[in-house]
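>> Question from a student workshop board

For tomorrow's exercise we were told to take the sequence and the ligand below, predict the bound structure, and bring the output to class. My setup keeps failing. Could a helper post the expected result so I can at least see what it should look like? The ligand is zinc ion.
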Amino acid sequence: MAPRTLSTAYGAVHDRLRRERGRASAHPCATPGCDRPARDWAYNGSAPFVIGDVDGAPRTWGMNADQYEPRCRRCHLRMDLGGTIATCPNGHDRATHGTSGTGCAECSRIRARNRYRRNRMNAQAPDVAAAIQTLDFPDLVAFLDGLTFGAYAALVPHLTTTTIRRLFDHYAALETPA
Ligand SMILES: [Zn+2]
Ligand SMILES: [Zn+2]
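>> Workshop helper replied:
Here is what the output should look like for this input. Compare the format with yours to find the bug.
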């Protein structure tokens, strides 16, 4: 009998996983030190894998049942948000830096530091018009969002026409109902 090629479609792999290994919830979470029960079969990132689309969203999944480990939702999310069990998506070691919910404590600290810098810049009002020229667009939007309307209106004339047009496109996109 010729060997049968198994389907690597997302649903087929997950069906096989349940058939061969049972329900993830019958196992403890595979993360060392995590004492939660598992909820899902989580792909461990190894080859061979498929890059595809599941229910309209881009996903990457392993082809074989042995590429999955039982994980609790929190650990599963940490892996699927781009990091690994050991490191955050930005490469910070989770054991050293600690965690903040499903996220990374070091990334939270960096975001807080950037917020603080922007607020300091806000306080140095005469220099703001010059300083905002150096921000990239997402930082500029975040900075402007934190201002009172009066401070905002005073700064807009210092922006280039291109930037103002981008801002209006950005606000228009926010107002478009989903
Ligand atoms: Zn866990
Ligand atoms: Zn991080």
